[in-house]
Design a protein that fits this description.
alpha+beta; six-stranded antiparallel beta sheet; 18% helix; elongated
């Protein structure tokens, strides 16, 4: 009777140890496959500031964002990377909103947006302009206006430090949007709307936001 009970306990203990060993092995494998949380933080920290241009999602107009950093580097569709700045996508308007998947199906994403990221900090003033590269009029002598918006976003910590809407009405138009300043520690200092001329054509068509016509007024960060 005692021997039978001992044999039964031995089998139970063996099975228990096998189960514990199996769970332990699975835990170790799962732990090794988990990505360290620091990786996600690293991805976010690669962009200190983001500057976005967005216009009407169904528009066929081609708009471009231009930016010059304090060192004189200029980024646009002509040069997508310079200094610590990078143009993530050159959006051509509705013409490149469709793509074909591996099964031959055509998908359309109605979004017209360009994004420039600042991957590091160069202290000083950044100048942002918009160029209306092309306009697709629906009829001749069309005088309708297009609408666009620009945002300057600080990533760490996240905050929209500048946002405004603008209008445009002709091909080749150059719009001075904003000049914003950044301190050496990455903090946002402030902005102004003094006209810029970084695109290089003959003259700049300055189009200040409504209610902000005084371009010499400095607006500190609050």
């Amino acid at each position: 009777m005692d021997r039978a009970r001992f044999k039964s306990m031995t089998a139970f203990l063996d099975m228990l140890w096998i189960l514990l060993a199996g769970f332990g092995a699975m835990f170790i494998i799962a732990f090794m496959l988990i990505q360290p949380p620091a990786k996600n933080a690293d991805v976010i920290k690669k962009a200190e500031f983001i500057i976005t241009l967005e216009w009407e999602p169904t528009s066929q107009d081609d708009l471009d964002i231009w930016i010059r950093d304090p060192s004189g580097n200029v980024v646009s569709f002509r040069q997508k990377s310079a200094g610590l700045m990078n143009l993530e996508k050159d959006d051509l308007g509705k013409s490149n909103d469709s793509f074909t998947d591996e099964n031959g199906n055509v998908h359309t994403i109605l979004l017209n947006k360009e994004v420039i990221t600042l991957r590091g900090i160069v202290a000083g003033e950044y100048e942002v302009m918009i160029h209306v590269y092309s306009r697709k009029y629906t009829k001749s002598f069309d005088t309708s206006q297009g609408n666009l918006s620009v945002e300057v976003i600080k990533i760490n910590p996240y905050k929209i430090v500048y946002k405004n809407n603008y209008t445009y009405n002709r091909r080749g138009q150059e719009i001075s949007v904003v000049r914003f300043s950044v301190a050496s520690d990455g903090s946002f200092v402030g902005y102004n709307n003094i006209p810029s001329n970084i695109i290089g054509s003959a003259g700049t068509n300055y189009n200040p936001p409504v209610g902000r016509e005084n371009v010499d007024e400095w607006r500190p960060h609050l």
